[in-house]
């Protein structure tokens, strides 16, 4: 006797097999569109190097906050995403390369060195924020999980580095260098910004943008933890804002500096809030996990 299925059973089995074939999950499509929106919106509205007009101060500094929220968002994913470390790190590095390049193109409109200044600051912000948030994950075991996707076991340990990671990292580095070279070629009268100016402005940006890191804790946590998270966020935000105020009182004699800081923080907070809200709608939640190194 033949072991093959009857025709009617074959016709019922094939659709099930086709339905079980792997397709791109909807949440990945939404996240891809979110990344594209950040790159396109940042490239078109990037105000880096633009002369601030009298009636456009609010919009100018809010857009700066939006631009500098991008490395913070990528750092949040790098630190807390459910994948293994090198998986999420390599993905985040590739996203940094593409987003920074596209937004850097937008900065070319206002000056030959505005794009380089932007890329350097964003890269430093990404590194510093990632290190801080990795420490938070290590100490307090916070992580982002996807509610509707089962975790697939990996052959690699949490921080194990494999040959495939090295190949991908080399490819990303080559892509980043080629894009960087492209920006240099198309930049008229290109010149490097001074190290002192980059260090000063980057340190100020880190101090200003640090408070927005707490936003994901009350946009991504489960509802039962939201009230407590908001309470902690308000207390922590108040302490940080007071510290930021006194720091800039010492560093900047400009009387409008506090107003500028608030506009930058407002733009960055709106960006992070709506971005993490979309991530929440895609099924991701912030929880305290069992394995801080996963």
Explain what the structure shows.
This protein has 294 residues and is mostly helical. It has one domain. The chain has 10 helices and 2 strands, in the order αααααβαααααβ. The chain has a two-stranded antiparallel ribbon with strand order 1-2. It is globular, with a radius of gyration of 22 Å. It starts with 6 loop residues before the first helix and ends in a 6-residue tail after the last strand.
Shape: globular
Low-confidence stretches: 1-5, 7-20, 153-157
- Summarize the helix and strand pattern as letters: HHHHHEHHHHHE
Strand content: under 5%
Supply the helix-strand structural class. Answer: mainly alpha
How widely separated are the two ends? Answer: 51 Å
Rg from alpha-carbon coordinates: 22 Å
> How much helix is in the residues?
55-70%
Let me know the largest β-sheet.
2 strands, antiparallel
What is the overall pLDDT average?
A: 76
Quick one: how many beta strands?
2
Q: Name the assembly state.
A: single chain
Provide the domain count.
1
